[in-house]
From TrEMBL:
Specifically methylates guanosine-37 in various tRNAs. CDD domains: TrmD-like. Belongs to the RNA methyltransferase TrmD family. This is tRNA (guanine-N(1)-)-methyltransferase. It comes from Polynucleobacter aenigmaticus. Homodimer. It is found in: Cytoplasm. GO terms for molecular function: tRNA (guanine(37)-N1)-methyltransferase activity.
Length: 248
């Protein structure tokens, strides 16, 4: 998987490329993160990437040309390295809210270019001419696209075969089957008078699987009932699941 990231603060991505699961994935060559700073493609001595908004208003707007020149450099690198260019994605409040399904879609692209906006906005002409995908991490505003980009990249990298120590971990994550994950426990068996559920100690794999499925359904119904509706609409619930939900 290859990510190309256009950012005014490329140093921030060391948190992703040098630490934890994502850092190991980069070290193993399972993913490459290529950072592009629009200031490197400015023609003026001040490396200007933003200007005041036409019509007035607070904040500055990222200019189209430095971003377009950066994208041209990204595409040239793809051509030189025989890489098939994937979509260009702008991190923006108006974008589609990121999900596990979108993470899987991005992995299937094989390559994605993120545009990390800053300041008040990005010149809309750049968006119209270049951006094919807009994504958001929720209905709130952060200072730039870097943190959302890293969040999405982390979610995608976890899905790459070999990125996790246990290949089953990604399969069993929340949202993979449309539901929240079941509760997890580890040693000690009793902590502050709270015991691990007996079923998890018995070694009966079928009973454990049933308990985990039921707990997943129970937690999802309690905390994210919208996911139950979505799972039902997508045919992810069995007759046994529906009966259990009715009993709840």
């Amino acid at each position: 998987m290859r990510f190309d990231v256009v950012s005014l603060f490329p140093e921030m991505f060391s948190a992703l490329t040098q630490w934890g699961i994502t850092g190991r994935a980069c070290e193993q060559g399972l993913v490459s993160v290529n950072l592009w700073n629009p200031r490197d493609y400015c023609s003026d001595s001040r490396k200007t990437v933003d200007d005041r908004a036409y019509g007035g208003g607070p904040g500055m707007v990222m200019m189209a040309k430095p971003l377009e020149d950066t994208i041209s450099a990204v595409k040239a690198a793809h051509q030189t390295q025989n890489v098939t260019s994937g979509p260009i994605c702008l991190l923006a409040p108006q974008g589609e809210v990121f999900s596990q399904k979108i993470a899987t879609d991005i992995l299937n692209y094989g390559n994605l270019t993120f545009i990390c906006g800053r300041y008040e906005a990005v010149d809309h002409r750049f968006i119209e001419r270049n951006v094919g995908l807009q994504l958001s991490i929720g209905d709130f505003v952060v200072s730039g696209g870097e943190l959302p980009a890293m969040t999405m990249m982390d979610a995608v990298i976890r899905l790459i075969p070999g990125a996790l120590g246990d290949g089953e971990s990604a399969i069993q994550d929340s949202f993979i089957n449309g539901l929240l994950d079941y509760p997890h426990y580890t040693r000690p068996e009793i902590y502050e008078n709270l015991s691990v559920p007996d079923v998890l100690l018995g070694g009966h794999h079928a009973k454990i699987a049933d308990w985990r499925r039921h707990k997943s359904l129970e937690l999802t119904l309690k905390l994210r009932p919208d996911l139950i509706k979505s799972a039902r609409a997508n045919g992810l619930l069995s007759k046994e699941d529906e009966q259990f939900l009715r009993n709840l």
